[in-house]
Amino acid sequence: MVSTLPLRPGLEGCQPYGAPELDVAARLNVNENPYPPSPEVIESIASAVAAAAAGLNRYPDRDFPALRSALADYLARESGVALPPEQIWAANGSNEVMLHLLQAFGGPGRSALSFTPTYSMYPEYARDTLTQYTTMPRRQDFTLDAPRAAELIEHQRPAVVIITSPNNPTGTALAQQDLEIVLAAARGNGPQDLPGQESTDAVVVVDEAYAEFRRPGVPSALELLAGNPHLAVTRTMSKAFGAAGLRLGYLAGSRELVDVLRVVRLPYHLSALTQAAALAALSHHEALMAQVASLRAERDALVDWLRAQGLTAHDSDANFVLFGPFPDRQAIWRRLLEEGVLIRVVGPEGFLRVSIGTPEEMEAFRACLSRAL
Ligand code: PMP
């Protein structure tokens, strides 16, 4: 049937984004933390939510200073970079933070540049904000060719440059000197909407959704915030924190940048219940993140095991590993699923991505893959 709905041009034939949500024994397809919160943490979140429920007749705190302050404290502990709450922003997942960034800085006639293979949601945020989405391939080993990126930025003058570090689906971290090259190129090479207009900077977004899983010695882009008001670093409670269901993503950037995001957000976008639950969860950050070290160890052991099977497995600073190649990756994916192990078909042709689960889940994955090989 031909629809008579006035669908916006560009949305014809588009499908809703999402990986399969299947109830199987080992769910290793969306890079979640496999460990649920402890009874103690559940209790603490439940009582915080109950207290917030008592005030549900009122709209929530629009600017959530308490939560921004708690997120700033967490970042200071995690990365050693101390920031005031005014330099923190948050929304319903880092997905929504990225949407705010493109709503504020993208738009018709402007472009966003990212480096492939990378996270498959970026083109959707671009589409939804009428921003042109452009990409430059990463090197063979998935590192960023920063001098080439700098040339492209100077030529293209994008509004937003998105670099994922550690990158999804490859696990590759960004070298600090490469980020410095990109930040320098972005200065003065942002969009020019009218001829003769004063120059702008491109906003450089480093998506650090998986930062807590990085190996020792790998720095965070947060360290470069001072002196770079055009840098934004996004983080999330969905991964290392083990709180994907909470929907709490956040960003660190200059006051000027955060203030612009406040213009485009919906009023009261963070519900009182989300704010209360996130604050309670943050007060237990050590307990919630207790498994990060073991997930890292499990990841490194998996890379070694995959290589011992004669496969290519990429070094990872995240909680997943990209491995292959397979002449028919769909067939391997299906075979594993038949045995209750759900992984992801994503990334370069022939490759698959597996999230790091519990030791039992990883054992099931290894056993199934051995049988499939
Ligand atoms: N960035 C990257 C690179 C991701 O892989 C993900 C989740 N898969 C996100 C952002 C979004 O995370 P969330 O919205 O749950 O914070």
Automatic annotation (TrEMBL):
CDD domains, sorted: AAT_like
Gene that specifies this protein: hisC_1
Record keyword Acetylation present: no
Organism: Actinomyces capricornis
UniProt cofactor(s): pyridoxal 5'-phosphate
Residues with the N6-(pyridoxal phosphate)lysine modification: K239
Xref: HAMAP family: HisC_aminotrans_2
Source taxon at top rank: Bacteria
Pathway note: Amino-acid biosynthesis; L-histidine biosynthesis; L-histidine from 5-phospho-alpha-D-ribose 1-diphosphate: step 7/9
Record-listed E.C. numbers: 2.6.1.9
Description of how the protein assembles with itself and partners: Homodimer.
Listed transmembrane segments: none
Catalysed reactions listed for this entry: L-histidinol phosphate + 2-oxoglutarate = 3-(imidazol-4-yl)-2-oxopropyl phosphate + L-glutamate
Keywords: Amino-acid biosynthesis, Aminotransferase, Histidine biosynthesis, Pyridoxal phosphate, Transferase
Domain Aminotransferase class I/classII large: 27-365
MF-aspect GO terms: transaminase activity
Record InterPro entries: Aminotrans_II_pyridoxalP_BS (IPR001917), Aminotransferase_I/II_large (IPR004839), HisP_aminotrans (IPR005861), PyrdxlP-dep_Trfase (IPR015424), PyrdxlP-dep_Trfase_major (IPR015421), PyrdxlP-dep_Trfase_small (IPR015422)
Family: Belongs to the class-II pyridoxal-phosphate-dependent aminotransferase family. Histidinol-phosphate aminotransferase subfamily.
Pfam families recorded: Aminotran_1_2 (PF00155)
PANTHER family, A to Z: HISTIDINOL-PHOSPHATE AMINOTRANSFERASE (PTHR42885:SF2), HISTIDINOL-PHOSPHATE AMINOTRANSFERASE-RELATED (PTHR42885)
Name assigned to this protein: Histidinol-phosphate aminotransferase
